């Protein structure tokens, strides 16, 4: 086996390369020698092998762009997403329905030994509380039917952000069971608050005091690069036996919650009272 850390000679696609984690990921992949083909709704400033403008709400455009890029790939990086300042249906259509369609269209083109990684969120850490509902939604194959389901379950979906990220976690774990038999891996990361342009939207919705709770125990937001590096690792041969994993990248936040050292409801209550 060659250098398990290298992307030399690898051909990859990345959704969401305009800014934030996706831009950091694309820049590092180019530096590592990968042939990087990116898509986003806004043009990328990274020196990519190709860039195509794509709105993930447009299913027909997703299918067309995959065919236009064409060829086989070694890795798929899913970094695109909308915050909850957008309408809930649009949030779910981009964060889950569109990314799922994009990924499923690439799967037949992924070389054996290849991998997929998707950015979820630590907002999805309690997905098991409504697992049956999420499984029902994730099982819907047709994008139009999935969008109709979202509209019919407005109370469950709420602002769309947490729900869409939980759906990504369920889908990633389910697909991991099937894809490993084809020699393809799929994983996700669950970032904590990260210093990207999208953070202003989260501040608008939640407020800085609430975001500070989710930045515990480190007491700071991560950088885009600190989120990009684990994505690149998970799609590299160095992670060759890691699949179906949803990896918290949150500076020990999840560990603190799981062991009772960080009491999120109490901290949020105190933040709101203060």
Automatic annotation (TrEMBL):
Name this protein carries in UniProt: Coniferyl-alcohol dehydrogenase
Pfam family, one: adh_short
Family classification: Belongs to the short-chain dehydrogenases/reductases (SDR) family.
Lineage: superkingdom: Bacteria
Native organism taxonomy: Bacteria, Pseudomonadati, Pseudomonadota, Alphaproteobacteria, Sphingomonadales
EC number: 1.1.1.194
MF (Gene Ontology): coniferyl-alcohol dehydrogenase activity
Organism, scientific name: Novosphingobium tardum
Key words of the record: Oxidoreductase
Keyword Oxidoreductase: yes
PANTHER family: DIHYDROANTICAPSIN 7-DEHYDROGENASE (PTHR43477:SF1)
Keyword check for Nuclease: no
């Amino acid at each position: 086996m060659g250098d398990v850390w290298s992307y030399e000679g690898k051909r990859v696609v990345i959704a969401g390369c305009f800014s934030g984690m996706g831009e950091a990921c694309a820049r590092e992949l180019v530096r590592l020698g990968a042939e990087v083909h990116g898509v986003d709704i806004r043009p990328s400033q990274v020196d990519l092998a190709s860039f195509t403008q794509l709105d993930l709400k447009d299913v027909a455009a997703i299918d067309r762009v995959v065919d236009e890029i064409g060829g086989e790939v070694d890795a798929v990086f899913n970094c695109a997403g909308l915050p909850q300042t957008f309408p809930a249906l649009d949030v779910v259509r981009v964060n889950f329905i569109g990314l799922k369609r994009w990924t499923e269209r690439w799967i037949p083109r992924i070389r054996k030994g290849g991998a997929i990684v998707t950015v979820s969120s630590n907002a999805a850490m309690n997905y098991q509380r409504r697992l049956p509902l999420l499984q029902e939604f994730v099982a819907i194959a047709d994008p139009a039917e999935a969008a109709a389901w979202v509209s019919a379950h407005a109370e469950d979906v709420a602002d769309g952000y947490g729900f869409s990220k939980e759906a990504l976690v369920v889908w990633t774990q389910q697909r991991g069971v099937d894809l490993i038999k084809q020699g393809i891996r799929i994983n996700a990361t669950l970032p904590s608050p990260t210093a990207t342009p999208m953070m202003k939207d989260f501040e608008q919705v939640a407020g800085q005091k609430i975001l500070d709770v989710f930045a515990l125990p480190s007491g700071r937001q991560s950088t885009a690069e600190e989120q990009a590096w684990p994505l690149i690792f998970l799609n590299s041969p160095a992670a060759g036996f890691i699949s179906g994993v949803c990896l918290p990248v949150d500076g020990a936040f999840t560990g603190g919650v799981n062991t009772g050292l960080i009491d999120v409801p109490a901290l949020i209550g105190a933040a709101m009272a203060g």
